[in-house]
Amino acid sequence: MQFIDQARVTVRGGRGGDGIVAFRREKYVPAGGPSGGDGGHGGNVVFEADANLQTLLDFKYKRLFPAVDGRRGGPNRCTGASGPDLVIKVPCGTEVRHLKTDILLGDLTDSGEQLVVAFGGRGGLGNAHYLSNRNRAPEKCTEGREGEEWPLQLELKLLAEVGIIGLPNAGKSTLISVLSAARPKIADYPFTTLVPNLGVVRRPTGDGTVFADIPGLIAGAAQGAGLGHDFLRHIERTRLLVHMVDGGSEDPVGDLRVVEQELEAYGHGLVDRPRLLVLNKLELIDADEREEQRQRLEEASGRPVMLTSAAMGQGLDRLLQSVWAELGV
């Protein structure tokens, strides 16, 4: 399934039905009077969060979403049928913004949560509405009003408690594949992961915690370089970041600083988010050099460094214990 996390759509509320001019003419009723009914209201456009959806793919090929118009009024003061609401399913974690003003209209995070994004027009009034002592036979009615129409920007931000970040090929996908049932593509070249991957890791309490593997960041990601700019938004909602550094890199400290600088440049409080620093791929580091690399990273970051080998399954228990401690499990 193709992963789409941004979409632009136009929503349009239904037009209200017109009121009508009608008079009651019935045998044995000499003074029936005006009986034109009101028009029905137009339908609203409603977004609803659905936990079964994971992408905005449905909005790639359809951009206009009009609700049903209201029906015109009828004789004998019959009100026209109102148009049903158009309910559009979106993934949990979808932000809805006005395209031109960038105003946030709503953030749908819980399954079943709804947001009305375009109200339908009111129905017009029939001539029965204008009956008065001065005008016993009004021939006036009004048309229904047009529904609201808005251009919208949809942005999907994944709902995960733990985000795994790092440069390309740091071992993020391998880690999430070992800890959970997720099966992302893994290969020995950069940018293997092109979309975020989610995996559920079982807690000691028995329930699950969602981990997100974010595609690799590079220098300049916050300004649009590489894939990081597109997917940095997906770690905005995380409570904890696991920063993985490639132990087989020529300059692990330089790799650490690149990611730290991109988090600071992107903003949104990511640089202040709790983070665990992990030196991965121990199998590529000589035993006598491991402690030296750990000390260099701790001096550069001011944080304790954990040593792991996701491919060999080493150090993962301690990593998970630290994750649960940070999350207060």
Q: Can you describe this structure?
A:
By secondary structure, the chain is an alpha/beta fold. The chain folds into 2 domains: 1-156, Spo0b-associated Gtp-binding Protein, Chain: A, CATH 2.70.210; 162-327, 3-Layer(aba) Sandwich (Rossmann fold). It has helices at residues 172-179, 228-231, 252-266, 287-301, 316-327; strands at residues 6-12, 45-50, 64-66, 86-91, 94-98, 104-108, 114-118, 149-156, 162-165, 197-202, 208-213, 240-246, 275-280, 305-307. The strands form 3 sheets. Strands 10-11-9-12-13-14 form a 6-stranded mixed beta sheet, sandwiched between helices. A 5-stranded mixed beta sheet has the order 3-1-8-5-6, with no helix packed on it. It has a 3-stranded mixed beta sheet with strand order 4-2-7, with no helix packed on it. The model is unreliable at 189-193 and 219-228 (pLDDT under 50).
